[in-house]
Amino acid sequence: MDADQFVAQWVMIIYDEAPKPQPWKDGLPLGGSFQISKDVYGSYWYLPSPLLKAPMNQPCKLSKSNEKHGEFDVGVLLPGTLYGDFGGKVGKLFFAINLIEGKRRIISLSQSHGGSHALDV
Fold first, then answer.
1. Are 107 and 88 in contact (CB under 8 A)?
2. Which residues pair with 65 in a beta bridge?
3. Which of 8, 24, 25, 108 can pair with 120 through a Cys bridge, CB separation 3.0 to 4.6 Å?
4. What does pTM read for this prediction?
5. Mean pLDDT of 15-38
6. How far is CA 61 from CA 15, 86, 99, 120, in A?
7. Is the peptide bond prior to 19 cis by the omega test (within 30 degrees of 0)?
8. Are strands 60-65 and 76-77 parallel, antiparallel or unpaired?
């Protein structure tokens, strides 16, 4: 897994709310953004923009996982995921990436499978 593929600024574009609303919807509204970065020690971090609300407004250290999460109908799911525990009703949140036409990336957020999606900017 190349976790560096996650390092970017991401903007929320869509929610997949079937069968129920996403628990991070209020904290990470459409058009809201976050960054995934890598520190000098090689750790990955979720860094929120100032406009996000709890619990998505707090930095969170992310861990690597080989589980398959967040498949999206477009593009090719890249191997591996990152995840973090945001607490509250959000809990453990997985980040997965689909590559579209070999150049654009969509990141999927999910507690298991499906979820919300953001584009890299």
1. no
2. 81
3. 8
4. 0.85
5. 85
6. 23, 10, 24, 19
7. yes
8. unpaired
